[in-house]
């Protein structure tokens, strides 16, 4: 029987993978993928905790809402990455450092 | 000024002041305005002409009638008021007149004599300054002014003796004159200080006047008692010693006389002025001013020193070959006579001799100037290597320089003291009074008048030698160099007029209507101390006759020896000859003993300075350098180090902090993650 713990473990694995990708990758697209992974870990948690909610399907609803939101933010992020590429001819976040002192 | 004085006196004082200040004005004009212009000579001469006229005016108003003393407060120190003013009595007006009367011919003579010199205007500036200092010296009414002008006379003579300052010998001579005079100045200054301490005033009349403080003071029980207090009597002798030193330095008396012969390095016209009226007269004048302070023992010292100086200088003059040196020693000898006269109480004779000596000595020096000038021309024209002042090269000049010869003859006879000349009157006065004085003395003091008498024969001899060698016989220079080209002459009116004027002044009518009796000279009437008038004893007849007869014999002897030269000549190897020729070895003695001692002392002090003081200073320097080094180290490594530490710390913190602002977004995220993890870890640990 798959219990809450199993969900949580998968979610932690996803979250950590996403976090590692964000911190270590040198490509903005990959970082975006990492963010998505972390978001999905959170959404997975929402769905898993939704079983214990007093209201039925409240978690699933919230998860759907978050997925839509994530899609929107991903679109925005991709647009930003495109603009960054136009300006800097690169999408390595280390090189995009004009704001530093 | 004192309003109670009659108008007439105030006017006289004004005239006197103008007479004194005019040469100074000439000095200022020459020095500041004229530069190298030839007008300087005429400015100075005009000033001295005006001075002469004014001084004569003052002289006839004051002489024999009354004393004018005008003064006002100069400055006040505490309760002591120092007055400055003018004191015109017989003594000062006599010198007030004498100085410009002598200086005038010298000025006229100098306009020709110094004509081709580069320092023409400088010469006349100095000459005017010299006359001014002397004139101011004689009219000063207090010891401070007297001292100031005394110094100024010394200083201006220093300038004139070293006039040709490019010559090493002139520089040495004027240094010597100045140092000798400094010794005298110290004496005068200490005497002034003692007198002020005792009497509380500098006023000459209050001190030395007929009813002055000196006259009222006396020595009782070893104390010098005066109206204002008493001090040990020894100070009276110290004051005398100081005055004596001053007189000895200025008037070239025995221990300090050696500067005068060396002062011949100046132009001859300056020598004429120094020897006649300005410089050396100052010493005798000072004696005349302070005469009342001397007691019997001190007067005896003066008599002995004067007599010795006269004798010594006369013996030296016998063998010298330098024309001006002979005259210089004769001046010293005559000054010795004057000081001796002061010592034997022949106050008025001394001053009388000062006046007559001024004329004939000035005349003789001007003659010497002409002769030297001519010899120098011969030397320059023929490129000879001779000393133009050496009388051994001269001879037979009487036909070539007739006016000069006559003048020299008159001056020489006056110096010897021949009848019909002024020198006869004054010198016999001194000798007679010296004999009168020695009647009451015992022992060696009896010798003094005889030594003086002997000196006057020596005088006759060296004067005769001088005149014979220069003017008689044959011209030895021509004899030695037969081919030299010679043209000689007396020179223009600037030479002749002064000579004639001074020669006339050397004759008796200027001083007395009687050519024989010195007591009839009008100068005697002016001085109070003249008390030897009575022709009470044999001396008054015997001495003049002896002097004259023996002088004639001596002069004839000299003539025979030096002109004929056929029978006998003086040995030139004996001890006496060497003693005289080397000027009694006094200069050598001074050089060996005093100068050497002072040099040794200064070397010792130099060593002390170098090895002790300098070393101490160096050590001190080293110590302070070390301390400073320590301080620098502290500063650098402790104070600065502390500051650097703070600065570095701040920089390190800054560098550490700026690493977080790298602009790398992942780095920020990682930091946040770390912080977050840290927060959780802490939370776990503490709970």
What does this structure look like?
Chain A: It is found in: Cell membrane; Membrane. Chain A: It catalyses: a quinone + NADH + 5 H(+)(in) = a quinol + NAD(+) + 4 H(+)(out). Chain A: One of its GO terms (molecular function) is quinone binding. The complex is a heterodimer of chains A (101) and B (687). Chain A has one domain (4-88): Helix Hairpins, CATH 1.10.287.3510. Chain A contains three helices and no strands. Chain A has helices spanning 4-24, 28-50, 58-88. The mean pLDDT of chain A is 88. With 687 residues, chain B is mainly alpha-helical. The termini of chain B are far apart. In chain B, the strands form two sheets. Chain B has a three-stranded antiparallel β-sheet with strand order 3-4-5. In chain B, strands 1-2 form a two-stranded antiparallel ribbon. The radius of gyration of chain B is 37 Å and the shape is elongated. Chain B contains 25 helices and five strands. The interface between A and B is small, with 13 and 10 residues.
Descriptive terms for the model:
heterodimer; A: 101 residues; Helix Hairpins; 3 helices; B: 687 residues; mainly alpha; Four Helix Bundle (Hemerythrin (Met), subunit A); three-stranded antiparallel sheet; two-stranded antiparallel ribbon; cell membrane (chain A); EC 7.1.1.- (chain A); quinone binding (chain A); membrane (chain A); NAD (chain A)
Percent helix of chain A, as a range, is: over 70%
Shape of chain B: elongated
- Work out the radius of gyration of chain A: 17 Å
> What CATH architecture of chain A do you see?
Orthogonal Bundle
Number of domains of chain A: 1
Helix content of chain B: over 70%
Strand content of chain A: under 5%
**Alpha-beta classification of chain B:** mainly alpha
Overall SS class of chain A? mainly alpha
| CATH fold assignment of chain A | Helix Hairpins
Assembly state here?
heterodimer
Query: Biggest sheet of chain B: strands side by side, in what order?
Result: 3-4-5
Regions with little confidence, pLDDT below 50 for 5+ residues of chain B: none
* Count of helix runs of chain A: 3
């Amino acid at each position: 029987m798959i219990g809450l713990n199993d969900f949580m473990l998968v979610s932690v694995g996803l979250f950590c993978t996403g976090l590692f990708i964000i911190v270590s990758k040198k490509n903005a697209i990959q970082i975006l993928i990492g963010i998505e992974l972390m978001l999905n870990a959170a959404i997975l948690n929402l769905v898993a905790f939704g079983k214990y909610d007093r209201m039925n399907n409240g978690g699933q609803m919230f998860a759907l809402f978050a997925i839509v939101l994530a899609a929107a933010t991903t679109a925005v992020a991709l647009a930003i990455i495109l603009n960054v590429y136009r300006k800097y001819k690169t999408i390595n976040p280390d090189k995009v450092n004009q704001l530093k002192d | 000024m004192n309003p109670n004085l009659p108008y007439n006196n105030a006017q006289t004082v004004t005239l006197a002041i103008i007479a004194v200040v005019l040469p100074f004005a000439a000095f200022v004009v020459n020095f500041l305005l004229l530069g190298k212009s030839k007008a300087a000579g005429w400015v100075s001469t005009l000033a001295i002409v005006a001075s002469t006229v004014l001084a004569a005016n003052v002289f006839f108003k004051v002489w024999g009638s009354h004393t004018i003393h005008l003064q006002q407060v100069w400055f006040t120190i505490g309760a002591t008021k120092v007055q400055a003013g003018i004191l015109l009595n017989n003594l000062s007006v006599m010198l007030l007149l004498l100085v410009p009367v002598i200086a005038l011919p010298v000025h006229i003579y100098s306009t020709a004599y110094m004509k081709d010199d580069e320092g023409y205007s400088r010469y006349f500036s100095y000459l005017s300054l010299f006359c001014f200092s002397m004139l101011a010296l004689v009219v000063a009414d207090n010891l401070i002014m007297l001292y100031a002008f005394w110094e100024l006379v010394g200083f201006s003579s220093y300038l004139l003796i070293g006039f040709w300052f490019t010559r090493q010998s002139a520089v040495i001579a004027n240094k010597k004159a100045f140092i000798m005079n400094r010794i005298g100045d110290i004496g005068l200054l200490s005497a002034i200080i003692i007198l002020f301490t005792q009497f509380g005033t500098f006023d000459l009349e209050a001190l030395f006047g007929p009813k002055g403080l000196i006259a009222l003071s006396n020595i009782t029980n070893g104390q010098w008692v005066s109206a204002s207090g008493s001090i040990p009597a020894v100070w009276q002798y110290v004051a005398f010693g100081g005055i004596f030193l001053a007189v000895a330095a200025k008037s070239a008396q025995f221990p300090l006389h050696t500067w005068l012969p060396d002062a011949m390095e100046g132009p001859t016209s300056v020598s004429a002025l120094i020897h006649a009226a300005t410089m050396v007269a100052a010493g005798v004048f000072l004696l005349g001013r302070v005469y009342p302070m001397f007691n019997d023992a001190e007067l005896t010292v003066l008599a002995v020193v004067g007599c010795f100086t006269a004798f010594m200088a006369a013996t030296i003059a016998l063998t010298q070959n330098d024309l001006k040196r002979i005259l210089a020693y004769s001046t010293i000898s005559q000054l010795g006579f004057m000081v001796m006269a002061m010592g034997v109480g022949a106050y008025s004779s001394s001053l009388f001799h000062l006046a007559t000596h001024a004329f004939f000595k000035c005349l003789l020096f001007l003659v010497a100037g002409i002769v030297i000038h001519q010899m120098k021309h011969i030397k320059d024209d023929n490129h000879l290597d001779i000393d133009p002042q050496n009388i051994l090269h001269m001879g037979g000049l009487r036909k070539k320089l007739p006016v000069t010869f006559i003048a020299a003859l008159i001056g020489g006879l006056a110096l010897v003291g021949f009848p019909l000349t002024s020198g006869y009157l004054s010198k016999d006065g001194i000798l007679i009074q010296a004999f009168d004085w020695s009647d009451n003395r015992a022992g060696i003091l009896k010798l003094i008048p005889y030594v003086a008498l002997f000196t006057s024969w020596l005088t006759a001899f060296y004067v005769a030698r001088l005149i014979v060698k220069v003017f008689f016989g044959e011209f030895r220079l021509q004899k030695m160099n037969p081919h030299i080209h010679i043209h000689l002459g007396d020179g223009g009116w600037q030479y002749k007029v002064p000579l004639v004027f001074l020669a006339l002044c050397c004759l008796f009518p200027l001083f007395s209507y009687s050519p024989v009796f010195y007591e009839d000279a009008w100068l005697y009437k002016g001085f109070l101390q003249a008390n030897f008038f009575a022709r009470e004893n044999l001396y008054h007849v015997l001495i003049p006759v002896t002097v004259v007869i023996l002088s004639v014999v001596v002069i004839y002897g000299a003539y025979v020896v030096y002109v004929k030269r056929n029978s006998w000549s003086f040995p030139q190897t004996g001890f006496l000859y060497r003693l005289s020729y080397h000027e009694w070895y006094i200069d050598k003695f001074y050089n060996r003993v005093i100068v050497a001692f002072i040099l040794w002392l200064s070397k010792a002090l130099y060593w002390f300075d170098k090895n002790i003081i300098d070393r101490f200073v160096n050590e001190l320097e080293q110590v302070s350098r070390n301390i400073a080094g320590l301080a620098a180290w502290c500063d650098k490594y402790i104070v600065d180090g502390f500051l650097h530490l703070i600065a570095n710390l701040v920089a390190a913190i800054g560098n550490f902090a700026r690493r977080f602002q790298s602009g790398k977004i992942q780095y920020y995220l990682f930091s946040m993650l770390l912080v977050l993890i840290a927060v959780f870890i802490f939370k776990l640990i503490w709970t």
